[in-house]
Amino acid sequence: MKLIRNPKQIQRCSLNLRSKGKRIGFVPTMGYLHEGHLSLIRRSVKECDLTVVSIYVNPLQFGPREDFKRYPRNLKRDMMLAAAAGADYVFAPRDIDMYPGEFLTAVCVDKIGKILCGSSRPGHFTGVTTVVTKLFNIVLPDIAYFGQKDAQQAVIIRKMVKDLNMPVTIKVLPTAREPDGLALSSRNAYLNPSQRQDALVIYKSLRKARQLIRQGERNPHTIVISIKRLIQRVDSARIDYINIVDAADLSRIEKIKGNILIALAVFIGKFRLIDNIVLRV
Amino acid sequence: MKLIRNPKQIQRCSLNLRSKGKRIGFVPTMGYLHEGHLSLIRRSVKECDLTVVSIYVNPLQFGPREDFKRYPRNLKRDMMLAAAAGADYVFAPRDIDMYPGEFLTAVCVDKIGKILCGSSRPGHFTGVTTVVTKLFNIVLPDIAYFGQKDAQQAVIIRKMVKDLNMPVTIKVLPTAREPDGLALSSRNAYLNPSQRQDALVIYKSLRKARQLIRQGERNPHTIVISIKRLIQRVDSARIDYINIVDAADLSRIEKIKGNILIALAVFIGKFRLIDNIVLRV
User: Which positions 155-184 of A are in contact with B (Cβ < 8 Å)?
Assistant: First the structure.
């Protein structure tokens, strides 16, 4: 496996591979890899001729008071894990090479970028879509792999790819979880043992929602209230949002029907965690 | 030469050509081709394995009171001209295929998209950068050719390509002119004979500016005032803007020095025409 730092170098390499008809798979990450990322890499290795993993903590998608600086980083460990999962290239650019000089361009997705996580993290998704556009243009993948844990991100990227005719297939793979249900996230590293225990309420509340729906509940508000109560019982937990929306376009629903996404963000202490499930009703 | 209407069809075709190592040249146009466009096509034919000309009057870059509906169109004539210039494909998509369903994504270039033409045509350059991104993703060119007549557009597209790492080389070719100096533009077709005569003041004023600079004038304000006077003598002419800026990044200059762009937009009757020259001082 090869480490490449320079965007131009990997772009030349990708252009060359594409001109030989090679199929490039791409797993964009912010590093501190966990089983969720590795499942994406392994899928790419299975489906493509070459797999590129990018490791880049993108400053553009962090708010001024967010955790950009303390976001966990460990390139050596990431490279070992990526290599073991079968990746061919790790692309880990430096900030100065990603945003040299004055940076003026943004790729924005309206509406669906402003709700849910977008309303508590203004500018976040524009940071995401802008860097993903850059990474796609640099790596030139045939297929790019994302995790369902970032459900809204996946919907927004699919919409961007469709609207801008990007020649990339987007595949979204299931959320990887700890045995006790906690969704894997690099941010779980922030949690102390008691917070780690408290964080279980997040997936527990999603399971509760699923149970209510299976029992016939069709009113999203009733379900949200029930989830709220469950989470409010945990002292260290503070709800950012809980929402039930159409899974395809994140539009509001008044009745549980079709493919629905139940998504939430919860602060455990100072740390904001997200999770979601998709149900077909 | 082949006419393709469907974005997916030409994208498949381009992906296939790229995977065989073919070099694709691209000339994006709004049609009603003139010698300016044809010079771009001929250059592409000389430099690339295949040349794609797009013909698309992009609604996104027209304001609500602008000339989208009356913009001149003549696909048959355009196809003959493109073929004669050596183009291999004309890509002329339909609106419904370029903007199907709800369109939510925009590519914006800040600052340099808001001055000059951007201040009199709000949203115009976002329409341009968004459609050019789409066209680049559909046609997948190695080289894309633009005319210097749209100087600001060229600077903005170069900046977008750099910021977003688009794998495209941008080439900007000189403005083509009538023998009497009028810059070629599809919009010249709007002018009646007397307006056509009045429009000559535009290039005349640019020549005047060049002459002043050659004579040693280094104050941009003095030059702008002198141009203004010249144009104001023509009854049907109304100045939209006259500006002298840095040719590379369109920034304000206080002194004529280095590579400078003298750009202006003038209404002749109801019709807005633009022109510019670049000088190295």
Answer: 159-160, 163-167
